[in-house]
Amino acid sequence: MKSFRRNMTAIGLALAAVATTTAPVAAQDWEVRITPYVWAAGLEGDLGTLPGFPAQAVDLSFGDIWDDLDYGLFLAGSARNGPWVIYFDGSVVKTDTTEKVGGPYVSKVNITSDTSTLAMAFGGTVSQSYAHNLDLYGGFRYWHLENSYSVYTTSGRIKRDADADWTDPILGMAGRYALNDRWQAFGAADIGGFGVGSDFEWSLLAAVNYAFSENFSLAMGWRVLDIDYDKDGVVYDTTQSGPILGLTFKF
């Protein structure tokens, strides 16, 4: 968490875009959206999460990850008041992999991996009509990796732990467009890192929403999250992509 505090101090307060109006904005009630969702993402790239050992190429489908998945928790949300908006997205994923070796000295290897992210951004509406709105925002995405390696030998277990965490500033845009009374298209894109935490990262979301009622809807779409991090012997140069499915509650 020390690097989190350092980086937060470095990036300062998140940027906010000013709405394109010169008229005074009257006080309005907050509109809050909360979306728990499932992200069936695959993973490809280079991973080296144990300092001192070289990075390895990985190419895992969601089915491969599902076999080793302990749990995955995903939650997104927004809070809007007039032209101002706060965005939130967080995830926690834990996998547990055991490979039998069957050699004369090593019987099996176990790897437990925890990956957590937390993104928050602050922004404002720059274009709006009855059918659409477009926001610009700035903020941060925090990453935490924690891995535990256990090698089971004839003389006992050898265990080693490693972890890394960093914070990336991000800049992005998000928008919605009403297709009809029930269907709505929405999306978001951001870039970040810029050498503050990772060398570079970007994400893209494209989805549609079907409203069952004014306050309850189903979200379906596709998400991509790409990051290039290589510091202090830890390599996390990966692309995660796959479909998302979520339920949105509006208050």
Topology of helices and strands:
Elements: H1 2-11, E1 31-39, E2 42-48, E3 56-60, H2 62-68, E4 69-81, E5 84-100, E6 106-128, E7 132-153, E8 156-178, E9 183-192, E10 200-213, E11 216-231, E12 234-250
Strand proportion, as a percent range, falls in over 45%
The overall average pLDDT, rounded, is: 87
The rough form would be described as elongated
Written as H for each helix and E for each strand, in order along the chain, the element string is HEEEHEEEEEEEEE
CATH architecture classification: Beta Barrel
Total number of domains: 1
Strand adjacency order, main sheet: 1-4-5-6-7-8-9-10-11-12
Keywords: Signal
InterPro entries: OMP/PagP_B-barrel (IPR011250)
Protein name: Outer membrane protein beta-barrel domain-containing protein
Task: Provide an overview of this structure.
By secondary structure, the protein is mainly beta. It has one domain (2-20, 28-250): Lipocalin (Beta Barrel), CATH 2.40.128. It is built from two helices and twelve strands. A ten-stranded antiparallel barrel has the order 1-4-5-6-7-8-9-10-11-12. The chain is elongated. It starts with a helix and ends with a strand. The model is unreliable at 1-26 (pLDDT under 50).
Keywords:
10-stranded antiparallel β-barrel; mainly beta; 70% strand; signal; Lipocalin; 251 residues
